[in-house]
Amino acid sequence: MNRTTLSLGGAVVALAVLTGAASLTGGSDSAAAPEGAVTRLPVQRSTVVCPAPSPSEFANTTYTSFTPSTPRGGAGGTGSAELVPAADKAKPLAPLKQTGKSVTYTTDKPEAPALIGTADGPLAPGWAVEQTTVVDSGPGRGLLGTSCVTPDSEFWFPGASTATGRQDYLHLVDPDDAPAVVDIEMYGKDGLLKASTGDGITVPGKGSKPVLLSTLVADKVADLTVHVVVRSGRVGAAVQATDNKIGTDWLPPAAEPATSLVMPGIPADATAVHLVAYATGSDDADLTIKLATSTGLISPADHETLHVKAGMTATADLGDVTKGEAGSLVVGSSTVHSPVPVVVGLRVTRGKGDKQELAFLPATPAIDTRATVADNRGKASTLTLMAVGKDASVKVTSSPGPTGGTTVTKTVIVKAGTSLSLQPQPPSQGKGGYAVTVQRLSGGLVYASRMLALPLGGVPMFTIQPLPDDRGMVEVPQAGADLAILNK
Q1: Collapsed DSSP state (helix, strand, coil) of residue 485
Q2: What is the CA angle 294-128-71, rounded to 5?
Q3: 113, 104 in Cβ contact below 8 A?
């Protein structure tokens, strides 16, 4: 195979494309490292997009922006982090001016637009924006929460639906000046559904486009896996799912196809847990299903395995699988044949009768170093950590919100193969919302999620946000280094 040697500048551009985080800068570490070495440096610029929150006149949405403090900081000097309405040159919303302290912006406008956010300098590494919407009555009643996403070229959504009684909108947001072109594929239990208008959808530059999935196909399908592929440009994508009977929430993108996946943070009082899986390869997948409890892994009765045909979506109703103790679902490959990559996600229901609410929990990537979720409120937040392979040491940091306070940290040990659920301690002497940062210090792989519960009128309204690694640091080759070292 031919090798190509790139300068540091060329390698930086390549890394920026791979991480989706934008450009990087060097620092004092670069001069100290030997030629041909790789060093980890903070990203210099981050981009996120937030979908339009809700068309309901009863909706109230809060955006929370936060960058964690680090000993090294970002690229040095001053920086900025701001949200701007898509297709609008209005004044930036909720500008962030310092690390370690979040800022918020609220709106109750039904026509509130999608937002495009950028952060640079020391505010870029680990920048997180949370979007939380409360719809207190009327159609679409519920609590909707999502972490604003990094634009990319491909997304998977296991758990969408075009069934009667469901309205699922795929929200696409283009952060760049040029239009993006997107293809939408939908897979049910019998494979690919024929979509009438799912190919070549144009998303305007610096704009957004909501797509009602039921308008793309004639089939009424209860469980779908949606695959979003960007032909040109890049977009952020999320699905807003509304069930006429059991509420509404955002369905966030799932982790990339893999042979072992984790869905951390099924609530202790979940009354129904519905698993959706799709086999992305050319072979059938035979999956093992295990629940990670506080004491170890167990196999749910009558649901130890799941067979998923190639190119098709399969489901399993796990019922009240947690039975009073919060846990994490672990999907692996059986020994029937070679492992096959899949994408998976959960629909979780709390409550009974007309007092139900739903949320979605897709498989999430492991935290390599650090992850953050903003907009935690009092004791309404529950953090779930799950360790794989080895015991893991994890530091949990609660940072103050707009009203101030003092940062609080706690280090916990998560035993391998177990889930640990805890309520983060709010910052001392502070009031209102706060951010929580999870940092893996040592040990095995760590998976995490945050549940926010805001009950209203007897309805256990809640939402769950996975915590993937924030990718605030990336590996950069030194000047003259062979790019091949990145593959080692």
Answers
A1: helix
A2: 85
A3: no
The amino acid present at 279, given as its one-letter code, is: A
Sequence-ordered list of residues with C-beta below 8 angstroms from that of 318, at least 6 positions apart, any chain: 273, 274, 275, 289, 300, 303, 329
Residue type, 241: A
3-state secondary structure of 374: strand
Q: Which of 140, 114, 132, 149 is nearest to 21 (CA)?
A: 149
CB 300 within 8 A of CB 274: no
Q: Provide CB contacts within 8 A for 73, sequence distance 6+.
A: 42, 99, 122, 125
Cα distance between residue 389 and residue 353, in whole Å: 40
Nearest residue to 317 via CA among 263, 262, 265, 277: 277
**pTM reported for the whole predicted model:** 0.89
pLDDT of residue 289: 98
Number of H helices, E strands in the chain: 2, 34
Closest CA to 268 of 358, 328, 208, 316: 328
pLDDT in tens, 420-476: 999 999 998 878 899 999 999 999 999 999 999 999 999 999 999 999 999 998 888
User: CA-to-CA distance for 158 and 449, rounded, in angstroms?
Assistant: 18
User: Residue 35: what pLDDT?
Assistant: 54
User: Measured in whole angstroms, how far is the alpha carbon of residue 75 from the centre of its chain?
Assistant: 25
- Yes or no: say if 393 and 387 are a contact pair by the CB < 8 Å rule: no
Rounded to an integer, what distance in angstroms lies between the CA atom of residue 449 and that of residue 292? 14
SS3 215: helix
Report the distance separating Cα 402 and Cα 467, nearest Å: 22
217: tokens are 């196909």
Q: CA–CA separation, 109 vs 471, rounded Å?
A: 33
Distances (CA, A) of 315 to 69, 102, 309, 329, 481: 42, 39, 11, 14, 48
* Cβ burial, residue 277 (10 Å; 0-12/13-18/19+): buried
Average pLDDT score over residue span 193-221? 93
**DSSP-derived secondary structure for 93-114:** EEEE-STT--EEEEE--TTPPP
Structure tokens at 185: 């594929």
Query: Do the Cβ atoms of 149 and 88 come closer than 8 Å?
Result: no
At residue 3, does pLDDT exceed 50? no
Whether the pLDDT of residue 33 is over 50: the answer is no
pLDDT tens for each residue of 261-278: 999 999 999 999 999 999
pLDDT of residue 4: 32
The model's confidence at residue 487, banded by pLDDT at 50, 70 and 90, is very low
Burial of 58: CB neighbours in 10 Å, binned 0-12, 13-18, 19+? middle
pLDDT of 71 reads 59
> Residue 433 contacts by C-beta under 8 Å, 6 or more apart in sequence?
62, 64, 102, 104, 374, 375, 376, 377, 401, 402
